[in-house]
């Protein structure tokens, strides 16, 4: 890290240098998208959570699941052995493999930035992580897609809704980060 950069911008990672350039990741995502569209369909993740909910609810409480038009239409005739299901499983597994291969695997429930601002309570961190993830997923599904579907597949198809969703996501993320970490991470 450069000497002229203020301490508040220091990262929690011991080695902040990227493993590979950002543009290589972009090319990789683009190639995955091309293969996915060519072989199956555009990339999408959050819809699989709805299918999983529907399949599980249909297997445990079929009467309840059939009363929900949303779950009924997503789960009837679906199995978990689909492209999307394995794609969703591959995301954390791929991240784990990459972290292990590059020797950057860390078991840290509470990141340093969070600890500086809100303390070291892992329960509080997990609850707020869940709330944030839920709001992101709810907003994406409410908008008729998912984050990866909008930001990767939708933008590649020049869909206006995807550009709007992505802009709203980035704007709200910047505002949220500035509110939560407004004083550079020092504790309230």
What is the radius of gyration? 20 Å
Count of DSSP-assigned helices? 9
Strand portion, in percent? under 5%
Structural shape: globular
* Largest β sheet strand count, sense and barrel closure: none
Number of strands: 0
Low-confidence stretches: 1-11
Structural class of the helix and strand makeup? mainly alpha
Q: Which secondary structure elements does this structure contain, and how are they paired or packed?
A:
Layout: H1 22-39, H2 46-60, H3 62-67, H4 69-75, H5 83-101, H6 112-118, H7 122-142, H8 147-156, H9 160-180
Helix pairs in contact: 2-4, 8-9
List keywords for this structure.
188 residues; mainly alpha; 2 domains; 9 helices; 66% helix; globular
Describe the 3D structure.
This protein has helices at 22-39, 46-60, 62-67, 69-75, 83-101, 112-118, 122-142, 147-156, 160-180. By secondary structure, it is mainly alpha-helical. The protein has 2 domains: 19-107, no CATH class; 110-188, no CATH class. The protein is globular, with a radius of gyration of 20 Å. The two termini are 26 Å apart.
């Amino acid at each position: 890290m450069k000497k002229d950069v203020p301490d508040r911008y220091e990262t929690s990672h011991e080695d902040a240098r990227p493993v590979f350039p950002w543009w290589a990741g972009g090319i990789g995502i683009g190639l995955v998208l091309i293969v996915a569209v060519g072989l199956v369909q555009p990339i999408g993740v959050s819809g699989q959570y709805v299918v999983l909910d529907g399949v599980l609810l249909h297997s445990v409480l079929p009467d309840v699941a059939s009363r929900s038009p949303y779950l009924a239409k997503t789960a009837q005739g679906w199995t978990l052995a689909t492209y999307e299901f394995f794609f969703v499983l591959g995301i954390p597994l791929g991240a784990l493999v990459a972290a292990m291969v590059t020797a950057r695997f860390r078991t840290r429930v509470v990141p340093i930035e969070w600890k500086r601002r809100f303390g070291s309570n892992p329960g509080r961190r997990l609850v707020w992580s869940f709330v944030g993830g839920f709001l992101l997923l709810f907003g994406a599904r409410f908008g008729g897609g998912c984050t990866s579907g909008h930001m990767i597949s939708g933008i590649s198809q020049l869909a206006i809704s995807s550009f709007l969703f992505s802009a709203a996501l980035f704007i709200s993320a910047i505002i949220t980060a500035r509110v939560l970490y407004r004083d550079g991470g020092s504790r309230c």
